[in-house]
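Backbone-to-sequence.
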């Protein structure tokens, strides 16, 4: 739900951005006195809006995707800007990186797997929006850092806490292994784009989605099990079918982020949530924050196809990597 003041602010921002683009196209350049100003790219921000509902965090991806759709459509509405690269300079679940969960309890999503699964599900939709609008989408930035000399797992929008990697950083590690070109990928449990733009992921079932890439000698498939509500859910089996594999044998590696893997936050809580961890505890936390592989093996490919079952807890993200 967007308040009237938020709607008004968003409308005014859209008008300002539109006016600015028009000025760059046909307005007077007050530096040169000529008409028009050069544009190399268009950059804008996009933010979601989590809140606390009955003591639990509820995410909201819809405002973020609406911001992106508006920016893409705006650029595509002018012949002079439709080919320009578009960069989402800040693309995040909400708007205050330095607001910890002590003052903003809705930001408790940041420490665990909710942040990582939201990131997977939302970043994938950016590519779908680019497909839909034909925008020249160059990339998006997560406006997140490491805040120095702060309490452990304080709930800032950061990728690490006191040098220990958080689950969300491992999603970006997964993205980093997805090289080459994006492939057509579909899931019978992935929420339609228009539904997520309208009302985020609020249905009875979670969003089990997919994003895939292929390079000369590799392929990578990311799958996730996401829902807006930070509540327990069933573990589900995603049967990942990969077709048109050009070789007879591949090296298969499966990476996963869930409660037991690639998750320093759960390990820290099991330690008793220490604010002054021992050197040994810090070593354990650092190790648990790394991206973990749960399976590495060679498999045979028959008729260019393989089917791999992947167990996904709610808010889990997995990456299936094939190398040949």
């Amino acid at each position: 739900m967007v308040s009237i003041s938020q709607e008004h602010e968003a409308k005014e921002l859209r008008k300002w951005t539109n006016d600015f683009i028009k000025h760059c196209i046909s307005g007077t350049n007050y530096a040169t006195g000529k008409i028009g100003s050069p544009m190399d790219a268009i950059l804008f921000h996009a933010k979601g809006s989590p809140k606390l509902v009955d003591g639990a965090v509820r995410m909201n991806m819809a405002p973020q995707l609406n911001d992106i759709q508006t920016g893409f459509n705006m650029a595509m509405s002018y012949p002079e800007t439709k080919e320009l690269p578009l960069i989402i300079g800040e693309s995040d679940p909400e708007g205050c990186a330095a607001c910890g969960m002590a003052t903003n309890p809705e930001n408790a999503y940041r420490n665990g797997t909710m942040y990582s699964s939201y990131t997977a599900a939302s970043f994938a939709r950016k590519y779908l929006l680019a497909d839909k609008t034909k925008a020249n989408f160059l990339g998006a930035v997560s406006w997140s850092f490491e805040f120095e000399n702060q309490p452990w797992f304080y709930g800032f929008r950061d990728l690490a806490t006191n040098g220990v990697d958080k689950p969300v950083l491992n999603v970006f590690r997964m993205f980093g292994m997805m090289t080459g070109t994006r492939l057509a990928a579909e899931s019978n449990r992935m929420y339609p784009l228009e539904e997520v733009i309208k009302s985020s992921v609020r249905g009875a079932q979670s969003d089990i989605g997919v994003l895939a890439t292929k390079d000369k000698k590799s392929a990578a498939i990311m799958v996730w099990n996401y829902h807006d509500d930070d509540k327990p859910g069933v573990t589900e089996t995603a049967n990942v079918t990969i077709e048109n594999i050009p070789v007879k044998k591949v090296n298969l590696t499966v990476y996963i982020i869930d409660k037991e893997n690639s998750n320093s936050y759960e390990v820290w809580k099991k330690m008793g949530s220490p604010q002054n961890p021992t050197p040994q505890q810090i070593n354990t936390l650092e190790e648990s924050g790394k991206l973990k592989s749960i399976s590495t093996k060679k498999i045979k490919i028959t008729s260019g196809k393989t089917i791999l079952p992947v167990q996904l807890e709610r808010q889990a993200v997995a990456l299936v990597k094939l190398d040949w």
